[in-house]
Design a protein that fits this description.
about 25% strand; about 625 residues; 19 helices; 7-stranded mixed β-sheet; alpha/beta; 8-stranded mixed β-sheet; binds 5'-O-[(S)-butoxy(hydroxy)phosphoryl]adenosine
């Protein structure tokens, strides 16, 4: 098994070794996996193209490491424990042996339907076991999965299908989420109506069994295709640097980009980080509440835990259904040992009151984690006291879709914890802070732009179909560095505190959104001439979405207009991107070169206009007063 660090001394030693001899360090981790053929070279890279190769020439299949490898030692152990949306539905479990069989059957079905190594398969599914099974089935045969979060709209889904020219979509009929029943298959039909010509098959998993439209040319039932297949499917031999999956994420400009992860390095890093960050022990039950539609679900529900031979819970529901005690009920019921969730959920549950937590026995919890956005001190203290009871260290894990795995985090029981601090780099991770002049900010007690100066195995390799974009976004801001897009502070002890995005990306309830993307959606409304979107502090969501809009015709009924704008965004992207506040403005503050001065709009949205800075150089300084006069938040001067 991959190394599990146990003491502070060991962390320091291992960290130093990982920096001084990165190849030797990662080779030792990689040795613990099953390879068909060993790699020719541990690391071969340059950040200028970029061209990043880990374990090049090594041959493997990640599912042999997730599944086959465990059959002899833990075939009867539960691999996936599925908890339904409805608390009265019994939990369902798959042992490693059963999961192996189901993955093989699904893999054989995909092959029978013409899916081959390198083909892209899109998933648009709720959190049902078939999602994990399907993803692993792709990996088994070398097909590339592209999971699209099932909360995205038909438009957003169509964009992603087209960008990756997927051959198949796998979906469910419906998605039961809280009290809702969402017509998933209908959304796929709507997406295909937008011209996804590459799709040859829609494989439909029967979930709730509701009525759906059936297209005899494309549609096939999962249960009909999979049931009769053999439980044996030889795994495709993959090169370390063959593509494993694509996952779309938002940037500061343009449409979402497909982040590409490859087989070997991703395998080594997700397993290593999982074992160390959660200190998973034999027999533990681990639960990450994320959706597999996001990177957290890929790395820390599916791949990391299964590689480590863990029991991983997959939860179909939402934190507040049937009530705000659901998370804690599930922790109690399954005696969860490691629990991993997002600050937005913690804040929402905190607001409902302690009685929902106090009802349940949470004494099994050993480690509790946070991910996706900065966790504010109040939420951290509550999580620590009410959920962890002061005994379960909080791991505030900082990472990104692009990093593939957790890069900065405390190690529970090993390094210290401090509210709001993601703290220390993982072994093999070399963070640096840069200033705007492109110089490294040295020493402690400093702030800067967060970069990483040396490759780690699970880092992004390219953005699908557009390598230039990958280079420009991540590798061009600073020479020989990966640029994260985040600002950070390093305290006197060398702990990192993530301050937040320094680009036009906002983080709403832990979901990443490009302001330009939301603006493009808003501009689809027929009465909109121009819009500008910024984030503003929101008690539960972390950041809310504030939209300033110039309209063609005067808006008489503001409430109705706001509703329309929200509907347009829901149609174009999905409900997660809906603006919280909409303000109609006569103009947007612009520089003489015509660039929107977002700094001013952010200040107004935050309610603090005490220090607006110099507005005299604006093309239209008078517009600032109008923007302030119509502000949708109370302004503190
Ligand atoms: C952005 C990445 C990584 C899985 C989920 C989000 C923010 C992430 C933290 C944290 C403060 C955080 C950053 C980052 N972020 N974790 N612990 N503390 N900020 O993945 O959608 O790719 O978003 O989320 O701003 O750049 P993502």
């Amino acid at each position: 098994m991959t190394l599990q660090i146990k003491t502070l001394e060991q962390y320091k030693e291992v960290y130093q070794q990982s920096v001084e001899q990165p190849e030797a360090f990662w080779a030792a981790q990689a040795e613990t996996f099953q390879w068909r053929k060993k790699w020719d070279k541990v690391l071969d890279y340059n950040f200028s193209e970029p061209n990043i190769n880990w374990f090049k020439g090594g041959k493997l299949n990640i599912t042999e490491n997730c599944l086959d490898r465990h059959l002899a030692t833990r075939g009867e152990q539960v691999a996936i424990l599925w908890e339904a949306n409805d608390p009265n539905t019994p939990a369902k479990s798959y042992t490693y042996k059963q999961l192996h069989a189901e993955v093989c059957k699904a893999a054989n079905a995909l092959k029978a339907m013409g899916i081959q190594k390198g083909d892209r398969v899109c998933f648009y599914m709720p959190m049902v076991p078939e999602l994990a099974i399907g993803v692993l089935a792709c990996a088994r045969i070398g097909a590339v999965h592209s999971v699209v979060f099932a909360g995205f709209s038909a438009n957003a889904l169509a964009d992603r299908i087209k960008d990756a020219t997927c051959k198949m979509v796998i979906c469910s009929d419906y998605n039961s989420r809280g009290a809702k029943n969402i017509p998933v298959k209908q959304i796929v039909d709507d997406a295909l109506a937008l011209g996804c010509d590459s799709i040859e098959t829609v494989l439909v998993h029967k979930n709730t069994g509701g009525k759906i439209n059936w297209n005899t040319e494309l549609d096939k039932w999962w249960h009909e295709e999979v049931a009769a297949q053999s439980t044996d499917c030889p795994a495709e031999e993959m090169d370390s640097e063959d593509m494993l999956f694509i996952l779309y994420t938002s940037g500061s400009t343009g449409k979402p980009k497909g982040v590409v992860h490859t087989c070997g390095g991703y395998m080594v890093y997700t397993c290593f980080s999982f074992r160390n960050v959660f200190q998973y022990q034999e027999g533990d039950v681990y639960w990450c509440t994320a959706d597999i539609g996001w990177i957290t679900g890929h790395s820390y529900i599916v791949y990391g835990p299964l590689l480590a031979g863990a029991t991983t819970i997959m939860f179909e529901g939402v934190p507040t259904y049937p009530d705000a005690g659901r998370f804690w009920e599930v922790c109690d019921k399954h005696k969860v040992n490691q629990f991993y969730t997002a600050p937005t959920a913690i804040r929402a549950l905190m607001a409902k009151g302690d009685e929902y937590v106090d009802k349940y026995d949470l004494s099994s919890l050993k480690v509790i984690g946070s991910v996706g956005e900065p966790i504010n001190q109040e939420a951290w203290e509550w999580y620590n006291k009410e959920v962890g009871k002061g005994n379960a260290p909080i791991v505030d894990t900082w990472w990104q879709t692009e990093t593939g795995g957790i890069l900065i985090t405390p190690l529970p029981g090993i390094t210290d914890t401090k509210p709001c601090y993601a703290s220390y780099p993982m072994p093999g991770v070399q963070p640096v802070l840069m200033n705007a002049d492109g110089e490294e900010v040295q020493g402690n007690g400093v702030e800067g732009l967060l970069c990483v100066k040396f490759p780690w195995p699970s880092m992004i390799r390219t953005t699908y179909g557009d390598h230039e974009r990958c280079k420009n976004v991540y590798f061009s801001a600073f020479e020989n560095m990966y640029f994260t897009g985040d600002g950070a502070r390093r305290d006197e002890n060398g702990r990192y505190r993530i301050i937040g995005r320094v680009d036009d990306v906002i983080n709403v309830s832990g979901h990443r959104m490009g302001t330009a993307e939301v603006e493009n959606a808003i501009n689809e409304h027929e009465n909109v001439i121009e819009s500008a979107v910024v984030g503003y502090p929101h008690d539960i969501k972390g950041q809310g979405i504030y939209a300033y809009i110039i309209t063609q015709q005067a808006v008489e009924d503001e409430a109705a207009f706001t509703k329309e704008v929200r509907a347009v965004v829901t149609r174009e992207i999905g409900p997660i991107a809906k603006p919280d506040l909409v303000q109609v403005v006569p103009g947007l503050p612009k520089t003489r070169s015509g660039k929107i001065m977002r700094r001013i709009l952010r200040k107004v949205a935050s309610g603090d206009v005490s220090n607006l800075g110099d507005t005299s150089t604006l093309l239209n300084p008078d517009v600032v007063q109008a923007v302030m006069d119509g502000a949708k938040v109370e302004l503190k001067k």
